[in-house]
């Protein structure tokens, strides 16, 4: 009968366990000194060695000739545990034996001494699946078991365990295995099994395993089916992935808003029968890596990439702002959740999302608006090369009168009017002039929204009367607040809102605003207009052009 590679190559001693030296060293020390704990708790993600270490621990405490705290795998005790004939080592799946009666059976059995071994070891896998009553039945036995009993609890979801259980165990956290360690182990197994494996394919398998040794070995066996050589292309095809290069090409197309390339990438994935959910997860991974490049100074520490891949990623990331990456990540995450719904049409979800990524105007989320604001700020802050704008408008100098000849001096006196030469048109677009209302020149206070928000934190009702209001500075630097209605003016004047508004203006303008310097008016019907924040931003950007 065929045996799966991950079972065939399961570690038999602590020396064979990869990537968990911080745990195996402690276990070996305790066993070598004859002081094992009465209860262990192994927690961590799947395929990191929890059950494997539990079985090795059961062999080590019962081994007749342990080697530096590790089992010899040659004595009768070790061999009986390996072939499953040892009745003193019981392995229980809590997912299917999660009732209180199952725990009561264990509680009744622990009082009996082992039949053949030194210790009776109970290995409870997926212990978080036990019912609350089963946990309660286990508490006392777990805290003070007989001297010949050892409990090993394994779980992938530590947060589901009661604190009373965790506190009674010696806890070990199994880490995700590093990619180089996985790659080396997969290459070693391939060599021993006479499997042709490219080094790049080994790295690709290690990354797809996401820190799980079992997943890496299972993927190796899957890709090597039929005696085929394992290549990067074969791994990508087997997993329904287009690879790193294909993802970067798609991201470049998004940056260029190349809709043909975007739709072609989805069409190719669908025609190749690739899982669009896997395709989408690879795309999210690329965006995550780009975000790391844009936000950290030492991106190589957080990226599991080769030098060539890191250079290509950095080049692509240069086409995006941080705000844009955050907005895109939100859209990609929402699309992934939509794809996981039962009746979702994955292709349509993917294509619509990519179109929204290409055109930021189609994204109305908060992140999308922040990305647009970021681009406007960068455009406003960028210096304009080759254009000089005068600091202040200079009035055209009048042309002096032409001297009058003596002959014309005898003519009757007429009032002389100085003549001026029309000024030349400016070479650049001038900033829009301040608004003129009722003979006054008013300059807009674009940060007035901040004053409203300050008032809102203290008095939400009073701030509601200022919604839609606009503020200006007149020629005397007085503040003119134009309210949308007379009712808002009445409530502001009678409810103490005038003092609130004046204090908020002092903080925003960084100067004292006396009561006489605050003019409150009501907008005329033709001037009543509610400006949104985006309108203010776009207006400011147009003024800066």
Helix coverage percent: 40-55%
Distance between the amino and carboxyl termini: 76 Å
User: Cα-atom Rg, whole angstroms?
Assistant: 38 Å
Oligomer: single chain
Number of strand segments? 10
- How many DSSP helices? 24
What number of structural domains do the residues give? 4
Key structural traits:
single chain; 545 residues; alpha/beta; Helicase, Ruva Protein, domain 3; Zinc Finger, Delta Prime, domain 3; five-stranded parallel sheet; five-stranded mixed sheet; 49% helix
Could you please describe the fold and organization of this structure?
With about 550 residues, this protein is of the alpha/beta class. The chain has four domains: about 5-175, P-loop containing nucleotide triphosphate hydrolases (Rossmann fold); about 180-240, Helicase, Ruva Protein, domain 3, CATH 1.10.8.60; about 245-375, Zinc Finger, Delta Prime, domain 3 (Up-down Bundle), CATH 1.20.272.10; about 435-545, no CATH class. The chain contains 24 helices and ten strands. The strands form two sheets. The chain has a five-stranded parallel sheet, with helices on one face. Strands 6-7-8-9-10 form a five-stranded mixed sheet. β2, α5 (about 100-110) and β3 form a beta-alpha-beta unit. α8 (about 180-190) crosses α10 (about 215-225). The protein is elongated and about 105 Å long. Mean pLDDT is about 80; it is low at about 385-435 and about 525-535.
């Amino acid at each position: 009968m065929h045996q799966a590679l991950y079972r065939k190559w399961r570690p038999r001693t602590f020396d064979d366990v990869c990537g968990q030296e911080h745990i195996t060293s402690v276990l070996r020390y305790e066993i070598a000194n004859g002081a094992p704990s009465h209860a262990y708790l192994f927690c961590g993600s799947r395929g990191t060695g929890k059950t494997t270490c539990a079985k090795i621990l059961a062999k080590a405490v019962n081994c007749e000739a342990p080697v530096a705290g590790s089992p010899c795998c040659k004595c009768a005790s070790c061999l009986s545990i390996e072939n499953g004939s040892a009745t003193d080592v019981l392995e229980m799946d809590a997912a299917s034996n999660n009732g209180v009666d199952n725990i009561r059976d264990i509680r009744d059995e622990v009082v009996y001494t082992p039949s053949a071994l030194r210790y009776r070891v109970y290995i409870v896998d997926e212990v978080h699946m036990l019912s609350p009553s089963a946990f309660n039945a286990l508490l006392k036995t777990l805290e003070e078991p007989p001297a010949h009993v050892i409990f090993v609890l394994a779980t992938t979801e530590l947060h589901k365990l009661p604190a009373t259980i965790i506190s009674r165990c010696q806890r070990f956290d199994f880490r995700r295995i590093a990619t180089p360690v996985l790659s080396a182990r997969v290459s070693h197994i391939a060599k021993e099994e006479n499997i042709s494996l490219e080094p790049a394919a080994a790295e690709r398998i290690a990354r797809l395993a996401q820190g799980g040794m079992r997943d890496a070995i299972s993927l190796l066996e899957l890709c090597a089916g039929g005696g085929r050589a394992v290549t990067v292309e074969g791994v990508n095809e087997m997993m329904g992935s287009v690879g790193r290069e294909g993802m970067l090409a798609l991201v470049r197309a998004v940056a260029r808003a190349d809709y043909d390339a975007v739709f072609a990438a989805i069409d190719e994935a669908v025609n190749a029968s690739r899982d669009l959910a896997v395709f989408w997860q690879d795309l999210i991974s690329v965006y995550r890596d780009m975000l790391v490049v844009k936000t950290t100074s030492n991106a190589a520490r957080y990226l599991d990439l080769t030098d060539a891949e890191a250079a290509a990623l950095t080049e692509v990331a240069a086409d995006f702002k941080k705000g844009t990456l955050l907005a895109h990540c939100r859209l990609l995450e929402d699309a992934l959740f939509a794809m996981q719904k039962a009746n979702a049409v994955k292709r349509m979800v993917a294509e619509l999302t990519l179109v929204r990524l290409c055109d930021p105007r189609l994204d109305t989320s908060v992140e999308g608006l922040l990305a647009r604001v970021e681009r406007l700020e960068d455009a406003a802050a960028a210096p304009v090369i080759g254009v000089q704008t005068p600091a202040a408008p200079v009035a055209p100098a009048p042309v002096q009168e032409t001297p009058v000849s003596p002959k014309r001096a005898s003519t009757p006196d007429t009032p002389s009017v100085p003549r001026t030469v029309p000024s030349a048109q400016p070479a650049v677009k001038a900033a829009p002039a301040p608004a003129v209302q009722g003979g006054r020149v008013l300059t807009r206070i674009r940060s007035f929204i901040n004053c409203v928000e300050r008032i809102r934190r203290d008095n939400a009702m009073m701030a509601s009367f200022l919604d839609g209001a606009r503020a200006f500075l007149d020629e005397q630097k007085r503040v003119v607040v134009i309210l949308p209605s007379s009712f808002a003016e009445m409530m502001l004047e009678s409810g103490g809102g005038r003092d609130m508004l004046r204090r908020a203006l002092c903080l925003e303008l960084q100067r004292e605003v006396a009561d006489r310097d605050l003019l409150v008016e009501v907008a005329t019907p033709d001037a009543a207009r509610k400006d949104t924040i985006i309108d203010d931003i776009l207006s400011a950007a147009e003024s800066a052009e």
